[in-house]
Amino acid sequence: MNSRRHHRRPLAAAAMMGWALLTVLGAGCSTSPGRPAADSATLAPSEILDFPTLFADNCSGCHGAEGRGGAAIALSDPVYLAIVDDATIRKTITSGVRGTAMAAFAQSAGGMLTAKQVEVLTSGIRASWTRPGILASLSPPSYAPRAPGDVAHGALVFKTYCQSCHGPDGRGGGQASSITDDSFLALTSDQGLRTVVITGRPELGAPDWRGNLAGKPMSEQEITDVVAWLVAQRVQTPGQPYSVANRAQH
Fold first, then answer.
1. Which residues contact 172 (CB under 8 A, 6 or more apart)?
2. Is 210 left (phi over 0), alpha (psi -120 to 50) or beta?
3. Residues 129-134: contacts with CB under 8 Å, at least 24 apart
4. Which one is predicted more confidently, 156 or 249?
């Protein structure tokens, strides 16, 4: 009986050592050089739901790093976020703006982003850069016009509030560029013009509707009228010295 007990103990010990060795070898394989970690799998583009990543990949090329502005307006401007609602931001991301450089980003409109990713961008822009109460003591102009614009009066408004920087007829001055340039007007929507008149371009040193003339903010109707005047400066064939109808003659 004693000999059997002594014989079983070495066998049991050997079995335990074998399992321990397999465990060590298995652990070594999972952390061996060149083997990816369990959490290192690359997400498919449609699965990315991190706001900074989505913004950097899809928006910063035009709107600047962290929304500070670039070729397009600064989305981190708290004045802009105080006048625009989430539905407008969502719609713009989803469908773009026809006739401008703002393309449609949602899959439903031919883009690459899912509806959930569009929602992450919309809520992220609002949550990251809104400053609650920034215009609380004011009655800011409405994002969209509330009445038709008067082109003739808009010309007078331009001279009062804008000419000192943008020059006569808006063709550029010592402090600001042309805003009646054919190409600029061709690539900017009516709403885009209104938005810039209201919010300015703080990243470029351009004031909002309160700062063009000291102590005299622009009224709702003055903004609507000057935008109507700017829209009236558009030409049918931007960048062309002659009309499409006469092109064959030149």
1. 166, 178
2. alpha
3. 129/67, 129/75, 129/76, 129/77, 129/78, 129/81, 130/78, 130/81, 130/82, 131/78, 131/81, 131/82, 134/78, 134/79, 134/82
4. 156
Those residues whose C-beta lies under 8 Å from the C-beta of residue 146, and which sit 6 or more positions away, are: 220, 224
Tokens matching residue 232:
């009236």
CA pair distance 189, 94, nearest whole angstrom: 17
For the chain, the residue count is 250
pLDDT digits (tens, 9 = 90+) for 221-246: 999 999 999 999 999 887 766 555 54
pLDDT band of 190, cuts 50, 70, 90: very high
188 φ, ψ (degrees, to nearest 5): -120, 130
> Above 80 in pLDDT, residue 159?
yes
Q: Name all domains of the chain by residue range, CATH numbers in brackets.
A: 46-129 (1.10.760.10), 151-232 (1.10.760.10)
Quick: pLDDT tens for 39-53: 667 889 999 999 999
Tell me, rounded to whole angstroms, the distance of Cα 53 from its chain centroid: 13
DSSP notation for 61-102: HHH-GGG--SSS--TT-HHHHHH--HHHHHHHHHH--TTSS-
Q: Give the angle subtended at the CA of 73 by the CAs of 67 and 79, to the nearest 5°.
A: 80
